[in-house]
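Bumping with the actual sequence this time:
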Amino acid sequence: MDDLFYNLQLFAEAGTLVNATGSYVNAYTGDTTPFDGSNSLAGELKTFYDTELLENARIEMFYAQFAKKQALPANHGTTVEWRKWNTFAKASKLEEGVIPTGQKFGMSAKTGSINQYGTYAAISDKLELHAYDDTILGATEEMGASAAETQEALIRDGLLVNTNVMYCDNITLATGAVAGTPTSPDTMEASDTALCLLTPDSVNKAVTIMKKNRVPRINGKYYCVIHPSVAYDLRSSKDWVEVHKYAAATEIFNGEIGELHGCRFIEDVFAPILKGDYVNKAGTATYASYMFGKDAFGIIDPAGGALEMIVKDKSQIGGPLNQFSTVGYKFETNGCTILYPERVLRIMSCSSYSATDEVN
């Protein structure tokens, strides 16, 4: 019996088009046809959905507002270099007629490279037609939240590798006395009798470290991003100043909740909840709070690579029977590049919720 050969492409959807950069392309023949304006969403709708995406993303972005932005023009590669001059030592006393030894002048550089991130969801024509609510709008709002969470996690995880770390004191819960200062996650207490807490005194110590390192402030203050579980313990302090008490006179950053010892606090549900190598003495979660000075880390802002909303209606993307539309986004980022290690202080603590909070 002769061998039989089958062309499986005969079973494919003949004439299916691929949306390419300059035209529609037939996936099987390579033939191209010009773009047809009737197959695109109206410009007004695109603008509306873009606005919805950006507004929803902006609501949930906390770390990025403290970054030093660096533009990356189109056609200039994917890597950016931040440069800074090295500092000089203090002058020494001069001796009459003696030329002193000069100092070396130099510079150092930090580099960061961008990657592309994105996701999408498909919405059936039946759901779009019969749902009570605007499904495209709803998907756009949720995509905004997804974009913000992705960007927050990339920055947060980039900051975690910084080696400038302070551990909060272990506090005896019955008396409030200091029971010792941890030097590693596995020496952080999280029991019924002692807890490693971010207290007003811990904040004071952190601010002192920043001052000793001569870290420049942001509008006269340092800023710290903390998880709500950590904020719960800290806000019980009588020294806590609620944000509304100074809001009229100063700029308010997104998520700002209050001030203590010259540091203003930003509450962020995406602030790190850690386990694995970071578990405390009780084997439960620990928390990383980041205190910032000016220009502590950098974010690349690539031309043409900013957060972009992409909506394809069912006549564009929905197959031979126009059965679904898609809603998605993409963007390019380096996450973050730490420019000055001493300007980012990672403050490690536990909280009253260490036993119940899940890793984020």
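The tokens above came from a reply further down the thread. The first helix runs from residue 43 to 59.
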